[in-house]
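Hi C.,

You asked whether I'd gotten around to modeling the 305-residue construct. I have! Everything is below, sequence then structure, no commentary in between.
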Amino acid sequence: MNKILEISLEELLLPGHAACAGCGAALALRHVLKALGKNTIIVIPAGCSSIIQGVYPKSALNIPVLNCAFDSAAAYASGVVEGLKAKNKSENINVVVWAGDGATFDIGLQSLSGAAERDTDMIYFCYDNEAYMNTGIQTSSATPFGALTTTTPIIGKRERKKDILSIILANEPSYLATGVSGYPIDLHNKVLKAKKYRGFRFIHILTPCPPGWRFDSKYTVTISKLAVDTGMWPLFEVIESKFNLTGPSLKLLNPKNRKSVEAYLALQGRFSKLTKEEVNCIQKFIDTRWEYLKYLTNFKERRFL
């Protein structure tokens, strides 16, 4: 798919949902559901999306939803997968998890690891707003270095973001990809591609959060695009261990095509306490990581290590 007009007009995230204005997670969910279609069962652990969908018996999601405890979304989805198999109804039904970074990087990691190790037939989406936004913007292990949260209020987080993708890749999933809602065609195509594979699949989506990241809600798409265009959030996919850059990230192997990370950081109040030296360190980290991505792209067997 190359044109935005080719995306389905059917809305499975209905108007009137409870997301904040400019919510990156709601925008990403809308795009993802358009690609998944109605034959989808979605498992949602505690988090922003369990609020966005609405309160029972009403729901903004026009597909079956299973809400579950914070730590066990992948385990619940595994049960759904096995139940469908037992009733011979698993054909052409997508079982997906839609979990935030807290339910993925932190408290849900054990059930996620088990499902990935068993190669359970599901698509696990992590919408990553880089903190526990729903409960008051507390730090998660997905929070990046230097970001201000309510539990790191003075100088920002001192640790780097956990490398969740390397943890998932250690289990050799059938399909793994990154995405942002600001580039919907790239995200849409990756969901369509993930549907074609069986076994465990993982898609990691950066979802800017206006109140948590401290920016005006009109900049949600701008910031998600800047995350990609500065090289902060590379768009790629790993299919059966083969690594490929995708979409706008294809041109970023040449550092001259990358925007300065300052353009991304300056729009967000959560990075207001960063010093010039710290900004330079973040830029150096990005440049070093892109050297590694260049190595993966050029590796003769094109296999992700």
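If it helps when you're writing up: The longest helix spans residues 276-298.

Thanks,
B.
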